[in-house]
Structure formats: structure tokens, C-alpha cells
Amino acid sequence: MIVLIPLAAVIDNAFSQGFSSFWSSATSGTALTALWVTLGASIVVAAVGAAMGTLIAWVLVRDEFPGKRFVNALIDLPFALPTIVAALTLIALYGPRSPLGVHLAYTRGAVLIALMFVTLPFVVRSVQPVLIELDPEVEEAAASLGASGATTFRRIVLPALRPAVLSGAALAFARSVGEFGSLVLIAGKVQIASIVIYDDIESDATQAAASLSVVLLAISLIVLVLIRRWGNRDAR
Amino acid sequence: MLVSRRARLSLRALALLYLALLLLLPLGVVFARTFEHGFGAAWGWVTTPAAISAFWLTVLIAAIAVPLNTIFGVGAALILVRSKARGRRVLDALIDLPFLVSPVIVGLALILVYGQTGWFGNWFVQHGIRIIYAPTGMIVATLFVSLPFVVREVAPVLIEVGDEQEQAAATLGASSWQSFWRVTLPSIRWGVAYGVVLTTARALGEIGAVAVVSSNVAGSTLTLPLLVLQRDSQIGPQAISSAYAAGAELAVMSLIVLLVMTMLAPRGRTA
């Protein structure tokens, strides 16, 4: 398999000098900082993505306005646009020559914006089809029985959407944990896991790179299991 | 939901504002920055030897990776949906791994397998084949990261169309090859096409995995995204202009991809 053999090589290399050297590399100051910064940013991005993604999906499905098709196509832009171009756009907008006068580049704020950009489609695209299938009559019935808009959303719409929102957010989280392209130009001194691994590889610290990679791989596997479990419940 | 007109308008405004700030404004600024010294200057940057070579390498990698992954993707989707082979569920779970693994880790993994000191590195060195720090490695890296797209688009379509027509073809005496070309492929062609477009987008824009296995030499192993990365890390207005020009070139390529995507998008998504 193209996929399994290379990943096995990474795990093998991480443990090549015994478990203790893996553990000391994986829990070194740099590795731990990178891990916490990356996980923290990913959680924030997944949460914002879940809220805004659901909102955008709702507007795209239940609202009518001119130019809706254009907006709908726009959602896919982050998937189509090379991540390095996304990074370039953020530097142009928030960098030293910012036309807005906002200087976010090379800070955590810029990292968050970049991640929100690249993960935007995940929640929207997983919630949208479910919302289309969901019969508006149920919502109308709730409203006719006196439920307010917020109550209807909380009691009727949200339970139906929950699996889709969760699996979309999990994908956004996984993508954020491993993201490199959109961050490499703008992270500056913010310690992002992928960039730390990249720098380790460039400076021939292969074992350190492999150790941090194994930790990230473990996180990816957990997310994979969670997504499949939510997916199955959805299908049942 | 029966939402009051005011609530609906404010939700709509909020969604559109978020999208405009996050997506449209940044893209506009890149084009503005690219053409600030005029169209001629931007064209000059795009046609430097380094930029032309990067363009062709990017196209070459996509031209090899996309067909290979299309064939693999259709095959894997057929196995996942139609056969009852053992290990099907494991394969199903594994297919998604490239989406979840950081591309930098993919690059590292390839070095550890195909690099000089890697598992199979020795064999390749003896036979004079260079994979890592050469275009071959960049192609393998691209294959890896864009693997799941076609499978994930084709498998649901296969489930939806069912296998009754294939069975009918078989009872009428069609070989499995004939039945694939005449019955299966026509019914899944939109799924395949959409998967190919997604694969192409990823192949053109991939940077993390490719950056690790490239030697980053302008004119031979730089793709357009790598050229942007290299130019941006250099100091001076010329390097910056060159980075923006290459970025805008990539943006145009991906806008074309987006256009094709919109035309092919499954009907359910356009509601």
C-alpha cells in the first residue's frame, strides 16, 4: 500500500532509539509547546467553524436571495485555492502593508484566520445536504404550536443536524492539526506542529520530527475513529 | 423555520459578511497587489525562466498524479461497494487517512522509505534511481495526498445506482469488461468527473508534502506553490512581486478549477 508502508516507517524511526528517546523527543519543550498551540488553535477553529458553518448552510438552504448560486460556489474556494495562495492573501491583507491597517501577520490571530479560511467548507458541506433533506413542515408545525425561532432551532433542527455538524467539525479539526501550507508564511514565531516538523526535517533532526509526527498520527487516528462512529449513527 | 423577516435578513447579512471578509476581500487584494505595477510587470514575472519551469513542473505532476489516482479511485470504489472481499472495512477506513495526516508527515514518511538511508533507499540508489529531492518523489507525494478524492465521490454514486443494470447486462451475455464500460462507467461519470476536479485542485496546490521531498532548486524541482514559498522568504520588493505574480497565476488556475467544480457539482448541493 502507498499509504501504510510510509507511515510504518515514521513510527519505526520514532522508536528506533528505544521508547525513552521517543518519549523525551515527544515531550521536549518545543514539541509540547507546538502541540498545545496547535491543538488549542484547532479546537477554536473547529468550534467557530461549526457555528458559522451551520449558519451559512442554513442561509444557503432556507433563504432566498439573488446571487445565491454564486455564494454557494464561493464556499468551495478554499478547497480549490492552493493553500500557499491563501497565505499570500492573508499577508497582503494583514501584513506590513495592510490596506486595513490591521497587523495580524505572524501572530496567533493570523494562524486562526488562516485555519478558518482553509476549513470553511467542511461544516457547510456536511450540514447542507442534511438540511435539504429535513422537511421544513416539521419546523412550521413547531412554530404553529407556538415555539419561537430559537426554540425550534434548538429542539427540532439542531438534533437532526448534530451528527453532520460534529463530523464536519471533526474534519476541520483534523485538517487544522496537520495544516502547513497556509501557515508557513504567516505563523512567524508561533510554534505550529507541522512547521516544527518541517524545520526538524530541514535540519536533519529526523528522529525528533518522527516523534512529533507519531503524536499527530495518534490524534488523526482518534479523529478518524470518532468520525466513523458519528457517521454510522447518522446512517442508522 | 418560520423566521421573522428581520431575523432572516440579519442571518443572511451575517453569513455574507463573514464570507466576504474571509474569502473575497483577501483574494481581491492579491490581484490588486499583483497588478499594482501594471499588467506588463506582472506578465514579466510570470514568464521568467524559473516561473515557466515551475508552471510546467506543476502541470506535469498533476498530469501524472490525476490519471493514476482516477484509475485507483474508481477501482477502489468498485471494491468497496460491489465486492464482499475481506478487509473491505479496513480499506474503507484507510482511504481517508491521507486527508487526516499532515502533509509534512507524508513527506517525512517518503524520505524514511525512499531516501538514501530509508527502507528501500539503498535499492534505488544502486539502480541509479533518485526519488527523494527529485520530481519522482514529488509525484509520489502528490499521489498520496490526493488519493481519497475520486473514491469518496464515486463510492456514494455506486451505492445509489445499485447493481441491477449490471446484473441485467450480465444475463444478456456481457462480459464484466463490457458491462463496466457500457453500464457502470456511464452511470458514475459525474461522480468521477467531480472527483477528478478535486484531485486536480489538490495536485496543483499541494505544498507541505512536496516541500519536504523537493530539493527546492529553481528551474528543476520548484512547483508554483514552492516558488511562492521560496520567493516570499527572500528579502526585497522584486522577490515579493515575483511571489505575488506566481500566487495570482495559481489563483487563476484554481478559479478555473472552481468554475468546473460549480458546473459539475452534484445537484443536491446547489439546492
What can you tell me about this protein's structure?
The complex is a heterodimer of chains A (236) and B (271). Chain A is an all-alpha fold and 236 residues long. Chain A has one domain: MetI-like fold (Orthogonal Bundle). Chain A is built from eleven helices and no strands. In chain A, helix 3 (29-62) packs parallel to helix 7. The two termini of chain A are 31 Å apart. By secondary structure, chain B is mainly α. Chain B is built from 15 helices and no strands. Chain B has one domain (45-266): MetI-like (MetI-like fold, Orthogonal Bundle), CATH 1.10.3720. Chain B is globular and about 70 Å long. Chain B has helices at residues 5-34, 39-46, 49-82, 88-95, 97-100, 103-114, 121-126, 135-145, 148-161, 164-171, 176-205, 208-213, 224-233, 237-264, 267-270. The two termini of chain B are 17 Å apart. In chain B, helix 3 packs antiparallel against helix 11. The chains are: A mainly alpha (236), B mainly alpha (271). At the A-B interface, helix 1, helix 3, helix 4, helix 5 and helix 6 of A face helix 1, helix 5, helix 6, helix 8 and helix 11 of B.
User: Tally the helices of chain A: what do you get?
Assistant: 11
Into which percentage range does the β-strand content of chain A fall?
Answer: under 5%
Radius of gyration of chain B: 22 Å
Helical fraction of chain B: over 70%
Low-confidence segments of chain A, ≥5 residues, pLDDT <50? none
Structural class of chain A: mainly alpha
Overall geometry of chain A comes to globular
CATH class of chain A: Mainly Alpha
Here the CATH topology of chain A equals MetI-like fold
Distance between the termini of chain A: 31 Å
Rg for CA atoms of chain A: 21 Å
What are the SSEs and their pairings?
The complex is a heterodimer of chains A (236) and B (271).
Chain A: H1 4-14, H2 18-26, H3 29-62, H4 68-74, H5 77-80, H6 83-94, H7 108-133, H8 136-144, H9 149-178, H10 193-202, H11 206-235
Chain B: H1 5-34, H2 39-46, H3 49-82, H4 88-95, H5 97-100, H6 103-114, H7 121-126, H8 135-145, H9 148-161, H10 164-171, H11 176-205, H12 208-213, H13 224-233, H14 237-264, H15 267-270
Helix pairs in contact in B: 1-14, 2-14, 3-8, 3-9, 3-11, 3-13, 6-8, 9-11, 10-11, 11-14, 13-14
